[in-house]
TrEMBL record:
InterPro entries: Aspartic_peptidase_AS, Peptidase_aspartic_dom_sf, Znf_CCHC
Name assigned to this protein: Integrase core domain protein
Source organism per UniProt: Caerostris darwini
Record keywords, A-Z: Metal-binding, Zinc, Zinc-finger
The encoding gene: RF55_13069
The keyword Hydrolase belongs to this UniProt entry's keyword annotation: no
PROSITE patterns: ASP_PROTEASE, ZF_CCHC
Length: 306
């Protein structure tokens, strides 16, 4: 037959399949129950509290003595041939969090929380909002935005404060959105009078949109128990008609959300605010200033009290 090569005696290949022996099963069982760092039986090695308080060199020494794989903590093989699909949630490399060289346990209360070693030792100082309460005759840059989480979305009052170097979100909002922290940091807050306050904050990825949902964005913010209370909304006044003629929609005035009260759940600091300003500014005859951001218009300035 032309065009084809046909042989009457094709070669027969013998494929050897690996044989699973009782010894192999025993080794697998032994490696599963192996205790790499301590002799306690009530937890896995990756969750060992003793290991959290050891440096990386001490942990690798213990693993070497017990002939355990540095990646999966099991015996019977070394780290290079290890096929276990493990990924560190901090650095994305192939090892358990407890073996991450960039992490260190900083809690002394028995907690298993791990934070960045460099962050723990940081003495960075940040300016933050100085006064948790505000005067009723001065309008600050407030607006209503939607925050998005795994359990849906809901509107909150937001404050733009370029005097704060960082952005913040209340712990109440974080809980309602079911956000997971990226990491924890210690920061020193500078207040008026030179007062310094060192606090621990968790960093979160925040997903937000304008009240009219025509712009969406995401940014990082630190948690805080309370940001600001008793911040007045933009009440009606002689400037109202001017704003309406110019097509300016003030979400903090028009939203009329009773459940929001006067509390602010999101503070947008200088780290984010500059990216949101569009450059549109309207100076009103009464001294107030309307500023447009990608998340909506805000009104600021001193009210004329009669």
């Amino acid at each position: 037959m032309k065009g084809f090569s046909v042989k009457d005696n094709p070669k027969i290949y013998s494929l050897k399949k690996p044989t699973h022996t009782a010894a192999g099963l025993f080794a697998g069982s032994q490696s599963f129950t192996n205790r790499a760092f301590c002799n306690e039986k009530n937890h896995e090695s990756k969750n060992c509290k003793l290991a959290l308080n050891l440096d990386l060199q001490e942990k690798t020494t213990l693993l070497a003595k017990k002939k355990c794989c540095y990646r999966c903590f099991k015996t019977g093989h070394m780290v290079r041939p290890c096929t276990n699909k493990i990924k560190c949630s901090q650095c994305q490399r192939r090892h358990y969090n407890v073996m991450c060289p960039e992490l260190k346990q900083v809690e002394s209360t028995g907690s298993d929380k791990i934070v960045d070693k460099a962050v723990e030792n940081s003495n960075e100082k940040f300016n933050t909002l100085a006064n948790p309460t505000c005067s009723a005759d001065v309008l600050l840059q407030t607006l209503v935005v939607y925050l998005y989480g795994n359990d849906g979305n809901f509107p909150v009052r937001a404050l733009i404060d370029t005097g704060s170097q960082k952005s913040y979100i209340t712990k109440e909002a974080v809980s309602k959105l079911s956000y997971e922290p990226i990491r924890a940091e210690y920061m020193i807050h500078n207040l008026f009078g030179g007062v310094e306050s060192k606090q621990k904050h968790h960093l979160y990825k925040v997903y937000a949109s304008s009240f009219q949902k025509d712009h969406h964005c995401s940014f990082e913010a630190y948690d805080q128990n309370t940001i600001c209370i008793d911040i007045p909304t933009a009440i009606s006044g002689p400037w109202t008609k001017v704003i309406e003629k110019k097509g300016i929609f003030l979400s903090d005035k028009e939203a009329c959300l009773d459940d929001l009260a006067s509390s602010v759940h999101l503070l947008i600091g200088a780290d984010i605010a500059g990216k949101l300003f569009t450059g549109k500014i309207v100076n009103l005859f009464c001294g107030l200033v309307a500023m447009e951001t990608l998340l909506g218009w805000s009104l600021m300035g001193k009210l004329e009290m009669k």
